[in-house]
Write a structure and sequence with these properties.
By secondary structure, the chain is of the alpha+beta class. It contains 4 helices and 7 strands. It has 2 domains: 67 residues, no CATH class; 61 residues, no CATH class. It has a 4-stranded antiparallel β-sheet with strand order 3-2-5-6, with no helix packed on it. Strands 4-1-7 form a 3-stranded mixed β-sheet, with no helix packed on it. Helix 3 packs across helix 4.
């Protein structure tokens, strides 16, 4: 017959699980989940195709899950925000973001505070401080003021 000290030395994990029954339950549930996921991934297609007694919506759902799990797609993590300018901007308008010329009315910008400027020949220079958020599009309303011509007399 074994002595209690020898038994606990041979199976320390079992002794720890007996001390903490919650840990044993968690490990048991984790093992069941791993086996279930592996079974779905390995046997999923065969089960779907060879199960004529499953209703059509269930088969379609299982196919969709199998397709989604077989194609590892991850949404890209945004690294910038976007700025969209709204307003009647003339064709010759030059747009500056922190003293760097940008092209178009929608352009990427690093998250944080920036100085936005619009310069044209016919209108007074326009400037605004903006705050760009990661992954979001900031819409900025630009209202240009026409330069007043002085009439020589």
């Amino acid at each position: 017959m074994e002595r209690p000290a020898e038994r606990s030395a041979e199976r320390p994990a079992l002794v720890e699980m007996q001390k903490s029954p919650m840990l044993g339950r968690i490990l048991g549930i984790a093992a069941i989940v791993v086996v279930a996921v592996a079974a779905v991934l390995i046997l999923g297609r065969r089960v779907i195709n060879n199960a004529p007694n499953l209703p059509a919506p269930v088969k379609d759902s299982l196919r969709a899950v199998a397709r989604a799990e077989s194609i590892a797609t991850f949404a890209p993590v945004p690294t910038t925000g976007w700025v969209r300018l709204n307003g009647d901007l003339p064709d010759d308008a030059v747009i500056w973001l922190d003293n760097v010329k940008v092209k178009g009315l929608v352009f990427p910008a690093q998250p944080g505070r920036h100085t936005l400027q619009v310069v044209t020949d016919e209108f007074e220079p326009w400037e605004s401080r903006i705050s760009v958020t990661l992954g979001d599009t900031l819409t900025v309303e630009v209202e240009l003021v026409l330069i007043q011509q002085q009439n020589p007399q």
